[in-house]
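Sat 14:20. Reprocessing the chain from the morning session after the first attempt stalled halfway. Input below, unchanged.
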Amino acid sequence: MIKTAFLFVMITLFTQAQSIKVTTGKVERLEKFKSQFVDARHVDVWLPEGYSTSDKYAVLYMHDGQMLFDPASTWNKQAWQVDSIAGQLISENKIQKCIIIGIWNNDKKRHPEYFPQNVYATFSLEQKKFISDILIKRGKIDTEFNPISDNYLRFIVEELKPYIDRTYATYTDQKHTFISGSSMGGLISLYAICEYPSVFGGAACLSTHWTGIYQNNTIPFQMPLFLI
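Finished this time. Tokens:
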């Protein structure tokens, strides 16, 4: 019975390890990483070729983690191919050695987690209703919009980062810690470096979704001014 249970555990771990295919390095999945601030979600940790615990690595935290590595596992069969690009840049000494932390989004809570909360607090009731109505109509949320990005960032800074720094061979200081994302992921990355400038040394905000919704309005002009 014990041998059977052990074999089952080993097969399960092997299956999980093989669930994300990469062209360089390897991915270790933290299954349903628990948090007191947000719902549990998968976190994928990409380690470059030659990763060694006797060395030190910078850390890049990336949002929408399920879209980063393996197109076979994404909803649209496309991926950022972060593993191959980062692996090549590291091998060519164009960037410092790093590990990449892919934080999965939480489907219908993606918008609430990625929308800058302190910015939203400055909007009028009319603007807030305008945002809620559009996001509900677009199927991005099911109920009245209520940003929880402050808790999402607390999850990263107070729970995930300490775990990563304890578990992997990382530099823990600000100049070796970065955050990145695309679209709404770019927006929350900018918010992160504004809220935690002592934690993150840089933010890559790609194709940033300034409006936070899906219609042109006055909101995009307010948000950058507030963040700057």
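DSSP finds eight helices and six strands in the chain.
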